């Protein structure tokens, strides 16, 4: 996924799980780069409408940030393969219908 580099990163790879809730893109990835450093796992929150791109190297920091943007319960992140399978048969993704 390419980013504008607002948070110091220009992208990340090895996405394992994702979801989109109210225009907020949530991503979990592994074995990639975060802020110039290798991370075994990471979480990213992207809010395109507000030009926000934030990456986290710990689950705790990710959850704390979600709370700060008024997402109090941790959202389900869907397996990237499930997302790809759904997209294969639909023109757009209805995030509530992915299993």
Report helical residue fraction.
Answer: 10-25%
Spatially, the strands of the biggest sheet line up as 4-3-2-1-5
Largest sheet: 5 strands, antiparallel
| Tally of DSSP β-strands | 5
Strand content: 35-45%
Cα-to-Cα separation, first versus last residue = 22 Å
Cα-based radius of gyration, to the nearest Å: 13 Å
User: In sequence order, what are the helices and strands, one letter per element?
Assistant: EEEEHEH
What is the overall silhouette?
Answer: globular
Number of helices: 2
Q: What structural class do the secondary elements suggest?
A: alpha+beta
Structure description:
- Helices cover 19% and strands 36% of the residues.
- The protein is globular.
- The chain has 99 residues and is α+β, with helices and mostly antiparallel strands.
- The longest helix has 10 residues, at 59-68.
- The two termini are 22 Å apart.
- A five-stranded antiparallel sheet has the order 4-3-2-1-5.
């Amino acid at each position: 996924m390419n980013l504008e580099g607002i948070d110091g990163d220009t992208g990340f790879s090895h996405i394992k799980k994702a979801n989109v809730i109210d225009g907020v893109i949530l991503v979990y990835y592994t074995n990639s780069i975060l802020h110039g450093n290798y991370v075994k796992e990471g979480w990213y929150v992207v809010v395109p409408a507000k030009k926000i791109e934030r990456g986290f190297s710990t689950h705790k920091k990710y959850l704390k940030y979600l709370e700060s943007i008024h997402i109090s319960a941790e959202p389900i992140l869907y397996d990237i393969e499930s997302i790809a399978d759904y997209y294969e048969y639909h023109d757009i993704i209805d995030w509530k219908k992915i299993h």
